[in-house]
Amino acid sequence: MVLAVMWWGCAPAEARQNSRDTCQEDQLDSSRVDATIRFRQHGKTYVQVFSDMTIEVPARAWGMASQLTFSEKSKEYQTAMHCLLRGGDNELRNTEWRDHNPVATAKGDKVTVKYNSFTWINKYQAYRLGPWVITGGKKNKEEWKVTLRPSTLTQARWRITADLGGLKFKYHGPASSADATTVVWTEQQPEALCPEHPCIEADLPRQRSLTLSWDESSLKSAGIATWWVLASGALALAALRAQRRSVPAASWTWGSGWRAGGFGRGLGEGLARPVLHWALLSAAIALTLVLLGQELAVSLRGKAIICITAGLTLTLVARPWHNGASSTAPETGTGGSGGRRQRYAVVGITSAAAGIGLLVVLGHGLFGLPRGLYTHAATTLAGKAGYVLMGLATVWLWLAAMAAWAWRFARDGGLVPARWIRTWDRAPVRCVAAVATLLGMVAGGLLWCLRWALENQWKRAAWLVIQNRPSKHAEYVNHYLSNFFFSDLTWIFAYSWLLTAVALLALLHSRFVIQRAQAVRAMENIPLGPDKPDLLLIAALFALTVGMRGAKFARINAQYGVWFALNIVALFAVLAAGRRWSVLSRMGDLFYLHKPGANKRTELLEKVHQYRNLNHQLQLLDQGRASGVTCEQLEAQLRELRQWLVSKCLKKNPPSQISILDVALAWGPESYWWPNALHGARLAFCFGIPASGTLIYLEMTDLFKGGQIRVEPTAIPSFVAGFIAYQTAWAGAGFVLGALWRLLPGRRSAARAWSLTFAYGIPAVLIGLFAQYTDAGVNMLLLYSVLMLFILTLTSLWMDTSTLQEERQYWPSRFALLLSIHRLRGLSGQVAWLLAQVAVVVAIVKTLINK
Hints:
Shape: globular
Radius of gyration: 33 Å
Number of strands: 14
Oligomer: single chain
Strand order of the largest sheet: 3-4-2-1-8-11-10
């Protein structure tokens, strides 16, 4: 921290401002300039504008011309380039972006400078790039004014080209040539071309105006708030239903199982309360952060107090020391010595962090800061240290709150390995110290990203005028440094939907444990899959993990809440179809009779092995490669297997097209739906790693998002978090596929993957139509959808090999086993289907790269 403060405390020394006399601008009057402005709007969220400027400077006429070819880092180059492009203009260029600095080449008696820049029209404000000024007012939101207003070279001869890229426009001044998209002026001087009015007046399309208006309206915040309220509402409803359905007549404790006659708190009931607390708190905090982000009369001091207090409250309400369903001390509750040491360790370190942050806020005078904590250029080194302390303490508190809630959900839901719990019970101080250090490293990494991005921002905005604006640099840095605590904790909370996913998983696991324990205790029928309350949890998990990643490609935050609701409705619609068209539902109550201890699945797998051998012998017999058996004998044995299947089914005539192999593969690799879900999640997670890398790479190559890496404080953490979120989406989709494996429609495994993708595709198509209307492009949304289908298809095929894992001994590899399974189920069709998906993915990726 000390090094960071010292780094920030070093500001460049004052330098003398270049004047017109120093730059000798009158010697540039014989130069020639070719200036082009280009607009690109199709397939973009915002209109992109490019400025290409080529300047020919007579080397003998201007004394600084030779300095333009010096090294870009030399003072001579910067001085000459400043005189050529800026003159006496020392204003920051916050809206101008460049891929590289201007390139100067000398040839004969001329020095040619190429100066290219670009920007995005993403707000109603003035934009300055190259020699151009673009302004748009809120009174007439569709009209933008484009003016040629260079800082230098006003007396040079200009050739001006404006390519409006399909925008409706009208131009002023006598043009040399013009058509529906382009206007050209030759041998012009800027003042003669645009003396009192803009050169061009352009009208943005209604779709672009809609996007800009939305981004600057309160509806954007309302859309985000709606998403949080809906997600929190679904979580609260699930927690209430889980609490009502918990079993009070018997209590479950890890390691001892069910204890008959006990009236202790069940696993689901104990978890429902903290989940409900998180649902209410997350919604309230989201609304608070949205309000604090608006231009309200809340001082920086007030924001800091609210954020520090909220972070401390979140951590303490989570009660990570709560023993819950501890495997090591089920009877101690929270009253044992271990629980007290855990509580003291957590409360002590979080209170210390909150105290450090509040010390800066309340003792601002100790750091030389004003009461309101607002920054100014003269902030001392101690003041910077105060901002750093306040920011690190607040960010650490919120990271600790997220970690505390994640631990509470995972532990109470039985998702944490027993050795972790034993370590936490035996050495809580050491665990808290280790986690605190890790979170401190994360907070320090975020601070480093802020520092690195701010310097890059300053170099970009103050390019060529850095030496002339040292006081502005200090004010610029102090402004962002003082707001570090709020901007980064807002970013942290934006990913807290992952906590909601953990809470849903914990609730599902706790209910599964209760469901299985009841079946074991009462020797009752084991259901095919999750019951109705569990289906709501799974649908919410599907919408959070799978839908949340896809929702961002629609670009408009208003649709987040709509997307969430549509994903849940679409999944229930697919399950409704599955009640009629899934394999096991069409077979009647065949596996509803599967009881604990009755090893019916082993018997089924033995019959499947016989079925596969008989079919293989039939194929060999058809090819003339079998002897000692007749076709009639093999067909008779197949009919016996069919009769066995009919005898196990309560229906008299199960569908003839459903074979024993279909039934076994529809049952899945595990005996219960929860292990099936975990199996699918692991497979999808592994298959999704290349897909996540591809999506992140495409985002980084995008000109707008890629340009943010160096200048946005949370850009690098966002790409890391984005990769984790994509992996969460694939794992969530695999989990839902495995959990609903027996309930999804379709006889073949790939059909189940298609049906689940269809549940995601319904809202994707609707939102994609809206994105198409706004002309923002749907390629990334389409790519994400195809990748989802491809990963789920691979997961479903690999689950087939896991189902028949016992036959792995007869085949040299898992792939050979897969081929043997699907040889009976249309192998060529499966391969063609996968290749078609790969071809679509490659085509979309090539389109996005070449865009």
